[in-house]
């Protein structure tokens, strides 16, 4: 009997563990990934010439990173692997992608989206200047290129990644101008019962903050980042501290980030239904705990459907693999027992993820405090005033209409960094709750395509 065509998009923790289960049960999946090497962003591998040890590169998580990498390396002969391949469209059970500027079409019976997460940012006046990076970008520069984003780096935003990247920069010997967190200590206390679901992770976070403070790095909570100063290049960060005092932080680079958010655009192209999540204030695909979406042949695992971290992503990937297997055969008693155990562990992980959102809340009020001259969309350099104009004069009642009139979300990022901010501004102008601003629809191509991809060859089709 011929195996069903199962395609996994993403070779991070979720995708790798999903492939592992499928291979163990006699299925040869296709694994597609944009990166040249497996591991995802959290366990991103260093370039081939680099020889840094796992412990230096991944810190306390080095054993997990090593295990994930070794698992994938052992699977390579049992999967069809497409590295450096970007999927830009999905239609009629066919993926349209390009690899090394060559078109690729891959048909599937079942599609498993393990697309991971991307940075969630919030505009700060002056953030369009050279020297402003997302937290993820700052981390990649350090881990993948062994360089800092500046000589003196200020970190601002909120979430665990804020402290993790600052700590990694400290360990690498970089000069840190300070860590300025928009969330307060009280919100963390309220979330403590859920954070204690993973006491080791909580302890690691506290250790990082302690290390920063022992190194005399200024660490402030309850902060409002007001402006990134400079004339084309960053020269400083202006913040308002919890006590109302304003401070100018001299720096030549700013790392900015407010948690991460699921990369959901391929789920949108696949026809999955979405719902507004009030806790994260994001539109997320409707996915149950076993990875089923509203589309019968499309599944989702890991941070690509909800941010729960790498450990939960590994469990989620395994769970989805069993869910897909159930579509093709009956599971035996041992397999069902394993599935139930994974589900119980995943539910505990979910409580911890909910705790992180409560401890480090999305500071939507900062969007309201932005001046009209602040740039909302960096790709197209659209200001808050221009978005408000599209609402007042063009009757743009939701993000897709506003996009047509203001061009917010039309740039290279395709709304990944600005659509949620645009929606908030629209809702505020109408005095409505945030979800009324709508969800920006994804349209192919969801990623830029080299112009020569479809001009010279018709492409290769894979069954």
UniProtKB/TrEMBL annotation:
Q: Name one GO molecular function term.
A: glycine dehydrogenase (cyanide-forming) activity
Q: Which InterPro entries match?
A: BFD-like_2Fe2S-bd_dom_sf (IPR041854), FAD/NAD-bd_sf (IPR036188), FAD/NAD-binding_dom (IPR023753), Metab_Enz_Cyan_OpOx_G3PDH (IPR051691), Opine_Oxase_asu/HCN_bsu (IPR017224)
Q: Which domain of life is it from?
A: Bacteria
Q: Coiled coil where?
A: none
Q: Which residues form the signal peptide?
A: none
Provide the alphabetized UniProt keywords: Oxidoreductase
> How would you classify this enzyme at the top EC level?
oxidoreductase
Documented EC number(s):
1.4.99.5
What sequence ranges are listed for the domain FAD/NAD(P)-binding?
A: 6-306
- Under which name does UniProt file this protein? Hydrogen cyanide synthase subunit HcnB
